[in-house]
């Protein structure tokens, strides 16, 4: 039996086909185009993404010859928002997690007396990424759109509406909206009141294992599907990445470095951070996701290559050559530090006005030093989040790594050294997609318990910390942690001057 996992990401949409032993048989991929009509905006065309998903499904069904397909299961990026009218037509493009136009409203909400309670109930830090803040922004800045809004939905909800004509959302995606009561698993009345909407304008809540089989007739014809195949809702890409790489118990964390980055731990209880540095999201029975996401991962490397080095670091050969030269240097890039907040930052500072900075630059520093400082800066940012996670839920011993970073042994060793943790890479080709497949396997009865997913995974690489390197990094990390606090007021002033 084959299973098809659809991963709707920010950069790409993927279809990953696996067999019952979780071995990857085939992967199809399309690229999402991002639209930035004005500063702070980050949009994508929801209709184009649905067309891409439909194309991936057609390719997948053709590959499988529609025979013996167990299910189709979905993963999707969190925090997206689309406004649709009563006919299901988008009134807006999809606003991605990276859209920052609601920042001023997020800042106002933070000082609202209700803010602490909202965070404690929903587990979502008050930030422009949050659909709650995006809806408040739309209400104030796009009144006509807001007044004509029938539903406020995510990209996965839009895809399911186009497939089945129903507005449904899994608990995992809903948990990241800032509108869900994580304990009651119901829309949170106080958050809805702040947003100025009612629960009829949101989708019906469903478990991650919920599935639909009755495709709309035009879609069934478009996809050329003859059999009745379960389409499983699945969950959010972050939560499913933990499942897909096997980070499912206490003491284990999943680290992803792709376009952005994240550290996440699955726990048995809801664990909001008293300092509001982290998120805490419901996944499914007995599983909550605690962690933090950063805005600045592989996108920083891409920016650095294009704008500083004038190199195309999408080229594997070019990137590896550049990294090789950087790793010949001592840890700490000879006293050069890099704060990687070039796209603002989420965890742990939650500041849309945060900016990047090289600190300690001298005439002795070369492109290799700058490269190493960039890689170390991204890694320090994730370690900063990991420290907050450990303060909140306890010690972490092992990091399961996924994302584009796994192409570089040198970077993975650097992460082991900085964090002083064992870093493991499994043979999971795409952790989020594989996690979606595991949800699908449980939904149709192939997998009895999600806590048994490790039997499908095999460790292919393990990196242990070099303690001498770790000692050196610890000194630089303590300096790194001071940079944002010392520059925060400067960043705010720069933003005010720039906006004048």
**Reading side by side through the largest sheet, how are the strands ordered?**
17-18-16-15-21-22-23
What is the helical fraction, as a range of percent?
25-40%
Q: What percent strand?
A: 15-25%
Shape: globular
Rg on CA atoms, Å: 22 Å
Give average pLDDT, whole number. 94
How many DSSP H or I helices? 16
Count of extended strands: 23
Cα-to-Cα separation, first versus last residue: 60 Å
Low-confidence stretches: none
Write the layout of secondary structure elements.
Blueprint (H helix, E strand, L loop, with lengths): L1 E7 L3 E8 L4 E8 L11 E2 L1 H19 L4 E8 L5 E3 L9 E2 L7 H8 L4 H8 L8 H11 L1 H5 L3 E3 L1 H10 L3 E3 H4 L5 E2 L4 E2 L1 H7 L8 E3 L4 E2 L4 H7 L7 E6 H9 L6 E6 L3 E7 L11 E6 L2 E8 L3 H12 L6 H12 L9 E4 L15 E4 L7 H27 L4 E5 L6 H11 L2 E5 L4 H13 L15 E5 L3 H33 L1
Parallel strand pairs: 1-5, 5-14, 9-12, 15-21, 21-22
Antiparallel strand pairs: 1-2, 2-3, 4-7, 6-8, 10-11, 13-14, 15-16, 16-18, 17-18, 19-20, 22-23
What does this structure look like?
This protein has 500 residues and is an alpha+beta fold. It is 39% helix and 22% strand. The chain has 16 helices and 23 strands. The strands form 7 sheets. It has a 7-stranded mixed sheet with strand order 17-18-16-15-21-22-23, sandwiched between helices. Helix 12 crosses helix 13 (367-393). The longest helix has 33 residues, at 467-499. The model has no long low-confidence stretch (mean pLDDT 94).
């Amino acid at each position: 039996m084959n299973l098809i996992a659809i991963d709707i990401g920010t950069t790409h949409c993927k279809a990953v086909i696996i067999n019952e032993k979780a071995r990857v048989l085939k992967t199809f991929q399309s690229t999402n185009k991002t639209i930035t009509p004005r500063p702070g905006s980050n949009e994508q065309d929801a209709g184009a993404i649905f067309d891409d998903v439909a194309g991936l499904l057609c390719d997948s069904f053709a590959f499988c010859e529609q025979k013996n397909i167990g299910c189709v299961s979905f993963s999707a990026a969190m925090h997206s928002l689309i406004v649709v009218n009563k006919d299901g037509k988008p009134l807006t493009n999809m606003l991605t997690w990276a859209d920052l136009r609601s920042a001023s409203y997020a800042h106002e909400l933070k000082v609202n007396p209700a803010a602490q309670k909202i965070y404690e109930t929903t587990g979502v830090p008050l930030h422009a990424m949050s659909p709650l803040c995006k809806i408040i922004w739309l209400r104030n800045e796009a009144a006509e759109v807001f007044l004509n809004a029938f539903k406020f939905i995510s990209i996965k909800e839009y895809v399911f509406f186009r497939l089945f004509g129903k507005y449904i959302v899994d608990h995992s995606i809903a948990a990241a909206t800032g509108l869900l009561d994580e304990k009651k698993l119901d829309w949170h009345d106080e958050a809805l009141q702040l947003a100025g909407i009612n629960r009829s304008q949101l989708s019906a809540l469903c478990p991650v294992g919920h599935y639909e089989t009755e495709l709309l007739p035009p879609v069934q014809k478009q996809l050329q599907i003859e059999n009745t195949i379960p389409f499983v809702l699945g969950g959010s890409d972050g939560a499913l990445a933990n499942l897909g790489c096997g980070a499912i118990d206490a003491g284990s964390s999943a680290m992803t470095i792709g376009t952005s980055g994240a550290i996440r731990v699955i726990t048995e209880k809801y664990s909001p951070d008293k300092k509001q540095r982290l998120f805490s999201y419901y996944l499914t029975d007995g599983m909550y996701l605690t962690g933090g996401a950063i805005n600045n991962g592989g996108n920083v490397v891409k920016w650095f290559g294009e704008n500083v080095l004038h190199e195309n670091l999408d080229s594997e050969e070019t990137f590896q050559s550049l990294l090789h030269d950087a790793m010949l240097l001592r840890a700490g890039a000879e006293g050069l530090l890099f704060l990687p907040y070039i796209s603002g930052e989420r965890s742990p500072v939650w500041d849309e006005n945060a900016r990047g900075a090289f600190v300690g630059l001298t005439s002795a520093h070369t492109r290799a030093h700058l490269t190493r400082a960039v890689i170390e800066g991204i890694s320090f940012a994730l370690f900063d989040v990991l420290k907050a996670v450990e303060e909140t839920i306890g010690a972490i011993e092992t990091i399961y790594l996924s994302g584009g970073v796994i192409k570089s042994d040198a970077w993975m060793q650097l992460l082991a050294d900085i964090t002083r943790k064992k870093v493991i890479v499994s043979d999971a080709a795409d952790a989020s997609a594989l996690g979606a497949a595991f949800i699908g396997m449980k939904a149709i009865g192939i997998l009895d318990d999600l806590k048994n997913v490790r039997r499908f995974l095999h460790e292919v690489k393990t990196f242990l910390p070099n303690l001498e390197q770790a000692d050196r990094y610890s000194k630089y990390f303590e300096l790194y942690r001071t940079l944002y606090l010392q520059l925060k007021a400067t960043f705010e002033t720069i933003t005010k001057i720039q906006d004048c």
